[in-house]
Give the backbone structure.
Amino acid sequence: MWRELLPVGRHQDSGGYRRYAWTGADADCRAWFRAQAEARGLTYEVDRNGNQWAWLGDPLAGDAVVTGSHLDSVPDGGAFDGPLGVVSSFAALDELRRRGAEFTRPLAISNFGDEEGARFGLACVGSRLAAGQLTVEAAHRLRDGDGITLPQAMEAAGYEPDAIGPDPERLARIGAFVELHVEQGRALDLTGDPVGIASAIWPHGRWRFDFRGEANHAGTTRLVDRRDPMLTYAETVLAARREAELAGAVATFGKISVEPNGVNAIPSLVRGWLDSRAADQDRLDAVVGGIERAAREHAERAGIDLDVVRESFTPVVEFEHALRDELGKILTGRGDADRAVPVLGTGAGHDAGILSASVPTAMLFVRNPTGISHSPAEYAAEDDCVAGVIALADVLEGLACS
Ligand code: HGY
Ligand code: MN
Ligand code: MN
Ligand code: MN
């Protein structure tokens, strides 16, 4: 199963994945999901927002246990972020069937669309739409770097963009959602555990900084006569690092666009996208506030115009303690070690974070010894992936079987 998915959307030069929402690679991932569902005799469906579901039992019965994740990636992403959760869900079901488990609740495996937001700039579009955290109007306004809107992209992929919208009835039929995900950090590597349980997702957001100066000739314009927004952008990037260190947070300018984007032209406009995250809201406010203040001071001094737009924001997610503790009880004391499974926070956003506002939600993490993610270097050892599948099977058995 894993080997069939590995080549899908992989870039032959970088070795990274380019599985962007509503592209050919996304369609290939979706076809893979459907084949896995049908090969297991599961009831396959796609919801109004393009999220995929594979059901064991009656999808309308209610109180279902759902597990899954996403299959899309960031530009040149790794093989595990998202797919490990979906592959492990199918493998955990296979394991439960091997055990002869008797299901007393419906079970579903899900693939949520456009979790990374790599194409349209907003993360978790599929789960946000389903949870009513993204309006249809806002979704229809999403546009990719080529100016293609989300509705156009969905239509080109054969999906009905006018059908998208909140799906409360579907979410009301879910009693628990458990997402298994490769850890995007090294906490489990440091504790020596193959599997951990999530406690919380840090508050995080994306801000766009527009620095406007004056386009001019790179060769003939004297330095004193320039209004070069690239300089103010550069000073802001350095300020972001300082503010993050001061606040004990993280801040990244990972994406930039330049107009007119010519080697021999001083830019008229430099757009920089900031991703910032912190363990609590006060620290996040402090770091982003500090970065914006520094940017405005630099812009003022250089005669550059600055606009700052918050493009997306996800408040802190504390996973529901009852479900989290139930997972802890199920997983502690299995096999030889009777040590408690570690509970850890994360700075990474997930569909589980979005759904937690509507459904009791929990997450399992699988050790990533490099701690690297959103990169082809992302890694999880086979033994740990198997440990993740067994842990997920144990959790699903504990939640959905007699
Ligand atoms: O950005 C994130 O944390 C997630 O991977 N979408
Ligand atoms: Mn990711
Ligand atoms: Mn992910
Ligand atoms: Mn994520």
The first strand starts at residue 43 and ends at 46.
